[in-house]
Every structure is written in structure tokens, then in C-alpha cells.
Design goal:
284 residues, Thrombin, subunit H, six-stranded antiparallel beta barrel, 14 strands, Peptidase S1 domain-containing protein, disulfide bond
Length: 284
Amino acid sequence: MLLSGKLFQFVTLAWLNALSMGEFRCGRLDEKLLYTTNEKAEPSEHPWVGILLEDHGNRYENTRCSMVIINDLHVLTTATCVKRFSNRSGDTKAVAMLGVWDETDSPEEELSCNDKDFCVPGPELYKVVEIKVHPQTDRDTGDNDLAILRLEKPVEWTDWIQPICLEGTSEPDTLTNRNLHYTGFNHDNPEKGKGLAMTVSTQKCKRLTSSSVLVPVNQLCGYPVKRTKFYPGAPLMDIEVRDDKPHNFYLVAILVRNVDAGQATTQVYQNVRRGRSWIMDNLK
């Protein structure tokens, strides 16, 4: 029996994936995808982004929060996103949906395909058994808005489910005036999106968000090319360059909120670089 075009593509990709996993590394990037104005991510692009679900027994509720895979047992999101979960261990009711490209897809979906008939498997669900909120999370200012979620079982790596790198080998001293990549899900389209944002100074951030909005010391502002509002938890990423070539993405910050002021939409991010020691201490 002849395979359909979509199934043939998927089988071919699965075969290539089996070959490539021996060369697996975090923060995988495809250089040609960096130089496009496409606001939709390819199905296998940025494979570290997932969505936080809440288990209601007979259904899963999409919390409209993204998460980032940081190793085979842990994902990172905002502390604000996990406020709804009363249990911090055991039956938390929190579920990580990973390998997702279209947030309307369910794990029962055999394939998820874009308009070019490029297909990936349906998403996979992992129960969250422990939630750790940053001990210095400030309810008044919103600072240190970070939470680590431990999964019930190790993630099985594929071309569509992989972690991001937590740091680069050579990073700039400042995050001001950096043109950085972000990705995740948004309110305008169910498919994984992406974009670019220029990080701005604290003074410019205050002007963009209006003086009435406080931006905490460990947070920073990004001025995106497009005003599309992405879900909290979306990663802001820089690129490691080796031998004058883009090598991998690494995590800089995660989105905590969008602020509309006048004709501008500003993204406020939690600086992950300043929280790395806490993250690393809690990955054991």
C-alpha cells in the first residue's frame, strides 16, 4: 500500500530523527530559519516550548501559560502561572503538554501538519509531581516570578521535544539594546509563534509601560516588532556563536506580562540569568 504524502514525510523524519539523536544537543537551531519574517514557527522549531494544563479529571484546561523544558525531568514557567495549583507535590493537577505545535491538538492526534504538509506527532502529556516557586517571589512587585515543575517521569527526547540551553559560554554583560528571539503561544493563533524583541533600558521601559507600572529590579522590557500578545512563560533567547556561526539558543528570560501603553505593546520579562543558581540547585 502506498503511503500518503504526509505520512511519508513523517516516516522519513522519524528515520532522520533516529540518526540525529546521537548528535543531540540543547538549544538546537536551524540558521536559515533565523532570517525570515515568518511569525509562525515551523512544527519542529523551538522544541523546548510546552503548555501548562490543569487536570480536571474528565478534561484538561489550557491555562494559557507556556513552559520551557530545561532538562529531562524539569520545566520552567512563571510563579504566577502556578498560583491556581494548591498542591505543591504529589497530585498537583498540573500537566505539561510537550511536543506541541498547535495548541488545539490533543495527544490522540496521530499527526499535526502545517499548510505545507510538514507533519509532527501529536503532543505528549507529562504529569507534574512537584512545584517549586522561587523563594524570593515578591507578591507586591511581581519580581522573581519563577517556578520549576518536576515531571513524573523523564522526557523522551525526539526532534520535537528537546531542552533549551540554560546559559551561553560567552554572554554579554548587559541585556540592554539586544535584539533577541522569543517563541511560544499567543492569543491570535493556536500555532506556535515566534518573533524578535529589542531589549531596552530601565528608563525607556518606564516610558513604554507608563510611569505608573513598576518594573522590578530583576525584570527587563522587550520592545517587540509585532504587538501580538504571547502567553506568560514564553522564553526570550539569545544565540551562542561559535567559529562565527550561530550554534544554539540559550535562555535569557521568560515572559511575565504584556503591557499596552499608547501605540506600543511592551513585553516584561523575568531575568533568568539572575535566577540560574536557584534553578541549578533545584534540578537535582
